[in-house]
Amino acid sequence: MQQTMYFEGSVITEWLKQSGHDRDMKLLDDFKFFDSKMWWVAEKGAVINGASIPQAFWSTVGSPFVGDYRRASVLHDVACDKKEQPHKKVHRMFYDAMICDGVSTSKAKLMYQAVRIFGPKWDKQKHLIAPPNFTDISRDIVFENLALDIDELDKYLDKLFP
To answer: b vs e for 88-102, b when ≥16 Cβ sit within 10 Å of the residue's Cβ?
Structure first.
């Protein structure tokens, strides 16, 4: 019996030489995730740079290229760059891909809430929408909702951040 969510292919990359943080990589092959409804494809040639985790949280959550969320972050990077799907759908795919890859539900919910609140957002014309100010958001928001199932969490976040 085949899983309802699964990955296809491997993340194969090469580092790009650049000035500054030097974190970008180019995909050398297509990498895919099926979320039980649609395929999410990170195409060969796409540029990725790992999970966008603030360095202050690396000791708690993990660094950009370490952890079971790495493959999900590749797909999320590409989907955010393409903006072909609504941002909420892209961020939900990130959660589903993390769960599929073995990230614990509580860690996946923390990371999901972080991208839903502070991650990239765009409108139907693909114009970026400014995220809320980090200092305006209570730290408790992301920790008090870990008991909610993912659909309840989505509804809660939709009320706070339409």
So the answer is: eebbbbbbbbbbbbe
Strand partners, 13: 27
Q: Which of 44, 64, 67 is nearest to 55 (CA)?
A: 64
CB within 8 Å of 119: residues ≥ 6 apart? 52, 80, 87, 91, 131
CB–CB of 91/110 below 8 Å? no
> Side chain identity at 58, as an amino acid letter?
W
Q: How many CB atoms lie within 10 A of CB 33?
A: 26
Cβ 73 vs Cβ 95: under 8 Å: no
> What DSSP designation does 70 have?
H
Supply 43's token pair. Answer: 């195409």
- The contacts of residue 92 (CB under 8 Å, 6+ apart) are 112, 150, 154
Average pLDDT rounded to a whole number, residues 46-75: 70
Encoding tokens for residue 119? 């991650």
pTM here? 0.88
pLDDT in tens, 70-109: 899 999 999 999 999 999 999 999 999 999 999 999 989 9
